[in-house]
């Protein structure tokens, strides 16, 4: 029993690695599906702006409100903008954005491709001599890889604005003053690794969502399973990448 | 001869391919050895031994719904007039086969779905494959387009063994083969226009939008659904979806069409319309077709020849009328 489980685990892991490797085989090789990639960028990026913006705003507000009593106790109210900016830019912005994208985009890709597999649409592409991996997987994964970093930067800016609003509940400060104070505490080593890791977040969200959907088995139940496992696996992958990124950043600084 | 990716002119190469086809070899082999049918069957497939036609098979006496236990050779009909044939046998005037299936076996786990299928399809012929659910019909045509890989045996199309083709070569072959799925498999995120334009946009990059629209409209007019061009597939009925699926498949002008249960789930009238459409497309575009079905009116209307699959092997072969006259109990169950 244990041996079978081990075999299944290694088989699935190998299958997933082979699936991921195919991405690099096709992504740089023409023909490029530019039109479909731009459409997926629109779906991933533009269609997520409200959700990411709202979440970012709440993050900033909550962070500023929750930290204020402790900061006030030490007489460090003026450090709140810096504390919010470092927390948001280094960690909370990228990770929360990635988790929301894993839920919203990963599940959509898992369900969409799973549904296409079940209804033989992927097979129909295959027999029409159209490479479904190139058309479905590469375009979606490129879109998430490019859009998640943009969404994370957008979430950072909105979160800082939320922090400014929350700070003005008890204290009076201008927007300009808040942002100057926030930027003053940010260094290159805070921003650069945070942006780089969001590309990896985007890539794993796209590739895992597509993998789960693309390899869905027949039957409607498998569509739900594909969507669900896409969210779980990509969220877990985001945290693992974040851990690795934190270690690398720590070594660099 | 390696097949090149000739996206621009997929339709005009049949004659040259056939000239180069090893099918001719099969025919000449047979001519040299009239009694060699059994021998060639055995060479192609161990399961093919059952097709050697040495008198009535005991398995042929099984009850209609009885399934042969695993390990036993698949049965053939005891009727000598309906024994599976090879190219040349009762094939005068048909020319050379463009599809040759030799001893194809396929299993999923312990379940042997195909157990040595031998079959031939001639140019311009409508071959109907009849069989009960689970007899391996759909798996067989999926093997023909590379969606499934046979465990053993060979499938030669236009003289090329598809299991030996590279991915690009297989795709070049697929452009010449149309496949109509049982559930149409239309892209549900696209309109009818986009569904039809999609294969053209992928394979004919230089074609203008106007030309693509004109071809799409022509295909829709062929299937009688020109006014549905801007509809979403979800807004159309099952019969309409089948027609759109057929139009999308035909848009690349394939030389071979594979229909997977084209009338399943349709009412009698719509099923007849689809069957008539299959005949019309065959006459208009000179397409060779394999039609998987268990719908007898569809088989009667479309079939030039019928092959019956049982337990994953060819059980009987003949025209609709020949099979209808058979005394074989299992065959009779299709003609109640």
Radius of gyration of chain B: 20 Å
How much is the radius of gyration of chain A in Å?
21 Å
State the helicity of chain A in percent bands. over 70%
Query: What percentage of the residues of chain B does DSSP assign to strands (E)?
Result: 15-25%
| Bulk shape of chain B | globular
H and E order of chain A: HHHHHHHHH
What composes the largest sheet of chain B? 6 strands, mixed
Distance between the termini of chain B: 47 Å
Mean pLDDT across residues of chain B = 78
Distance from first to last alpha carbon of chain A: 47 Å
**Which regions of chain A have little confidence, pLDDT < 50, spanning 5+ residues?**
none
How would you describe this protein?
The complex is a heterodimer of chains A (about 250) and B (about 325). Chain A has about 250 residues and is mainly α. Chain A has one domain (about 35-250). Chain A is built from 9 helices and no strands. Chain A has helices at about 1-25, 35-45, 50-75, 80-120, 120-125, 130-170, 175-185, 190-215, 220-250. In chain A, helix 4 packs across helix 7, helix 4 (about 80-120) runs parallel beside helix 8 and helix 4 packs antiparallel against helix 9 (about 220-250). With about 325 residues, chain B is an alpha/beta fold. Chain B has helices at about 15-20, 25-30, 35-45, 135-145, 165-175, 190-205, 210-220, 240-250, 270-285, 295-300, 320-325, 330; strands at about 95-110, 110-120, 125-130, 150-155, 160, 175-180, 255-260, 290-295, 305-310, 315-320. In chain B, the strands form 2 sheets. A 6-stranded mixed β-sheet of chain B has the order 6-7-8-3-9-10, with helices on both faces. Chain B has a 4-stranded antiparallel β-sheet with strand order 2-1-4-5, sandwiched between helices. In chain B, strand 7, helix 9 and strand 8 form a beta-alpha-beta unit. The termini of chain B are far apart. The interface of A and B includes residues 121, 127 and 135 of A.
